[in-house]
Amino acid sequence: xxxxxxxxxxxxxxxxxxxxxxEHHMREFLATWREAKAQNVxxxxxxxxxxxxLESLLLHLLNxxxxxxxxxxxxxxLPEPGFGELPTLxxxxxxADAFLDASLAxxxxxxxDLPGESFELEFEAAWGPVYCIDAMLEHAVMHPIRHTFxxxxxxxx
Length: 157
Prior knowledge:
Blueprint: H1 13-38, H2 54-75, H3 92-107, E1 122-124, E2 130-132, H4 133-154
Helix pairs in contact: 1-3, 1-4, 2-3, 2-4
């Protein structure tokens, strides 16, 4: 995998690499999600609303693109990236490509000029644990990987 030219050089090269990995794995998740949808895969029963249906899982992942970079920008007091409106559950499938393209484009520049030390700063996430900025970027990369893995297992791959 190479880093797309659309992702500019960053002061901290690790940020550029993680942004590229996030983009790659989000696109991979969406392709896998479409396979699961075509096979009419059913998610295991749970009380978690993010797993009620394939559509709710897709929306969960799309929302993650807003949350992770939004959290980082807020924590570092950077301007809000302006992600726009999250699709609804009813239209998330038809709007997924356009929303993902626009969201990933917003990921490419907010951290360009930050020195490496900025990525060591720690802040509390909405769900409780404390993360440094670098770890939150890694978390954002792993999120679609975990759900791609989940869907592939449910498809028997």
